[in-house]
Amino acid sequence: MSPALALAAAVALLALATAVGIVLRVRDGRRRAGGRLRFDPADAGVGALGSQATLVQFSTEMCTRCPQVRRMLSSYVAEHDGVHHVEVDLTHRPDLASRYRVLQTPTTFVVDASGAVVARFHGVPQRHALTDALAA
Asked: What is the three-state SS of the chain?
């Protein structure tokens, strides 16, 4: 392979990696539809869901952004009546990752009182997006 061709391949790979990184960063923390998922409170070891909503955070032991999300969701719940926060550690329950289609941590579900997933967030959720999801 000629040096010019190798350099062109390296530049193209770098440009592709940069584009993918930008797309992932833009999509991080944005609200997505919940689909037809239903969350079972027994999976998190809780007896009941919040009267208005429950914020279900999926995390792992090695997740670096999970403590930040935990603090943010805890403060958010403290400001809103009827909203609970539950954390599910996928390190100890890997079966739940496939059941709820969780591909990355942190992932946060907004679950209504009946258990229906109304919204999901990959990465660190934005506070205003949580408020919009609860209002919907």
From this structure: CCHHHHHHHHHHHHHHHHHHHHHHHHHCCCEEECCCCECCHHHHCCCCCCCCEEEEEEECCCCCCHHHHHHHHHHHHHHCCCEEEEEEECCCCCHHHHHCCCCCCCEEEEEECCCEEEEEEECCCCHHHHHHHHHC
* Least confident piece of the model among 40-49, 69-78, 82-91, 115-124: 40-49
Reading phi first (left if > 0) and then psi (alpha if -120 to 50, else beta), residue 63 is in beta
Task: Tell me what the mean pLDDT of segment 50-55 comes to.
Answer: 88
For residues 17 and 30, give the distance between their C-alpha atoms in angstroms, rounded to a whole number: 21
- Is the separation of the CB atoms in 106 and 59 below 8 Å? yes
Residue 124 tokens read as 């660190």
> How far is residue 136's CA from residue 134's CA, in Å, rounded to a whole number?
6
Provide the residue count of the chain.
Answer: 136
Phi and psi at residue 83, to the nearest 5°: -110, 130
